[in-house]
């Protein structure tokens, strides 16, 4: 032990409290303060700017004699550099507090708490963050994060084969960074710079809900959508008409015949290049009439939010609008998609409602041939398809209204199958 140090581990360990506070000096300003209650507290006495000051190093045995001496020596180095150790500690504590207040985890939880998702999806997103993101960058100041930080997180997920999850987590991280920018706690979102850095997600079929009870829950969620009215109408109409998303968003008012309850889509808008007719149920017509009051002066039934309805630059809504709305409702791309409403209708119309498959295929605008191998024209089975589309809309209403066990729909007697 150096001559300037006076205490020993044994002396510190055996020191007993007395009626008054006692100080056991070690050297270079370090001492152990014994309190009547039995506390053993490390203190450093020093002078700065001509004033005597004290600095606490914690209590024994949590802080050993060797630890206390190391802290004393570090404080004396600061004094030698004309820095007050107490002020240095306050500044470091304030910096840690600021760092914690603007950490990625804090921002992510704040952002997550403001999302209006269904409980299951909300829990899933939070689990992604807690398991795959927070352990690596949760404590980092959000303003200091760069693209490689997020790539490191995504690579760990990708490395275990969860490629789609890696993309989803990266997408959510980008949303948190946008929120950080909006709230003034970051200036740059580096996540978009990672476009193309991960392996592409494997090609998948469009997710669709085919269980009637789950479909009823989705329909109720759609009715509670709190976004744009135009988007709400697109959401509500999608399962009723089950066209391809691109056909719906490009719908023009000139194609809708309210009197005859038909939507006639020209061939150039169809995947197969052939004109298509969509019979409109009473429910579909009601939605379109509501929508017409808002966008009826323009070309498109569903104009983009960044274009003025009726203007020369008017464009249809984005191709991802309905999917994005489904995400807001808590349905991820592995559960429900705009395109998936087609599979939903095809499955339930056939397996639950037992409509003739050729009626369904016609309504899906699939290539259907007659016995001689010729393609049917767009008006084929139109009367039967009208009945089917109205029956489908009525059935969706029963699903939406039933929050318990779904009762199989019974078609009116004499209705074509």
Automatic annotation (TrEMBL):
GO terms for molecular function: DNA binding. It comes from the Bacteria. The keyword DNA-binding applies. Keywords: DNA integration, DNA recombination, DNA-binding. CDD domains: INT_P4_C. Residues 205-394 form the Tyr recombinase domain. One of its GO terms (biological process) is DNA recombination. SUPFAM superfamilies: DNA breaking-rejoining enzymes. Belongs to the 'phage' integrase family. PANTHER family: PROPHAGE INTEGRASE, PROPHAGE INTEGRASE INTS-RELATED. This is Integrase.
